Amino acid sequence: MQMSLPCVKQPDVITCKAAVAWGAGKPLVIEEVNVNPPQAMEIRIKVVCTSLCRSDITAWESQAIFPRIFGHEATGIVESVGQGVTEFTEGDHVLTVFIGECGKCRQCTSGKSNICEVLGLERRGVMHCDQRTRFSINGKPIYHYCAVSSFSEYTVVHSGCAVKISSVVPLEKVCLLSCGVAAGLGAAWNVADISNGSSVVIFGLGTVGLSVAQGAKLRGASQIIGVDTNPEKGENAKAFGITAFINPHDSKDPIQQVIKNLTGGGADYSFECIGDTGMVTTALQACCDGWGLTVTLGVPKVKPEVTAHYGIFLTGRTLKGSLFGGWKPKSDLPSLVDMYTKKEIQVDEYITHNLPFEDVNKAFNLMREGKCLRCVIHMAK
């Protein structure tokens, strides 16, 4: 007698609310969207909290892929899993990540990089595996952002772009570790490897820049100079390790000369956290001869090309790029979450606003006006 296999119920299409961007710079619209079931090696997540990152704004203002659901810095709960997923089960708490880790490609196995060849930065607004979207409205595709799209009550991500975390960790706090705070700490620790007693200058004192400052402080840097044109950021920056604040508008001399004067010839490390390629040259010039290292983290809106006089490099200065602070998300993020639970790193202090989902446009306005560090958007009722 032939035995019949048990019937496994497949996940259904979910209809939920999402903040859809219909055009560059246009206010987001809360729409009813359909979210398809997860495909092979994917998971569908109920988004609990998501915070607004500067790169969301940069893409919203300048990129041509629309309609689109932005958001990538998020926490949530696994609602369903696709075929072949063994790492996650329904009910797991997760961090989403905008670059994944397959663990098998040349980059992942090298021990030298976090740029996964399979699950690297997705720029086309689709899923990694089949180049299609999981969102739609009346049959029309709605595109993804960084293969996460957390400005939706439910989203689908590749299982390699999520990190399981403890159910006791506050989701409304650790969402910041899925991008900004982790990126800054990693730039200081992994990319620059800041040494004890060194001098550091940071251009741009948003969440990423202040996370670099925190990382430098924890590494024992003796001088941490913050540079920003917003005078209100100076006092707040001290709580994250900044020892001196410079507003370029208040100086008659070029900012790089001011920094050289303060550091006795130039900083050991400089960080460009603005997204201005012109500032990269300034950051290089603010470094010392011989061993000065500049790390660039910002995402530029315009002019992606970097130009610098070759003499800067002949004198021994180095320029390095940093994506997500060099962290391998699955391998490394659990240790950062653990550091947070032990109160070894600051995370809560970057949260300046908590907003309901329907106020997502307010979050955009606050960040554009320089009035916030991180707005945490609460999705769940």
UniProtKB/TrEMBL annotation:
Residue span(s) of domain Alcohol dehydrogenase-like C-terminal: 208-339
Keywords from the UniProt entry: Metal-binding, Oxidoreductase, Zinc
PROSITE patterns in the cross-refs: ADH_ZINC (PS00059)
One Pfam family, short name: ADH_zinc_N
Cofactor(s) listed in the protein's UniProt record: Zn(2+)
Record domain Alcohol dehydrogenase-like N-terminal: where: 41-165
Family membership: Belongs to the zinc-containing alcohol dehydrogenase family.
PANTHER family with a match to the protein in the record: ALCOHOL DEHYDROGENASE (PTHR43880), ALCOHOL DEHYDROGENASE-LIKE 6 (PTHR43880:SF5)
Quaternary structure (record): Homodimer.
Official protein name in the record: Alcohol dehydrogenase-like 6 isoform X1
UniProt lineage: Eukaryota, Viridiplantae, Streptophyta, Embryophyta, Tracheophyta
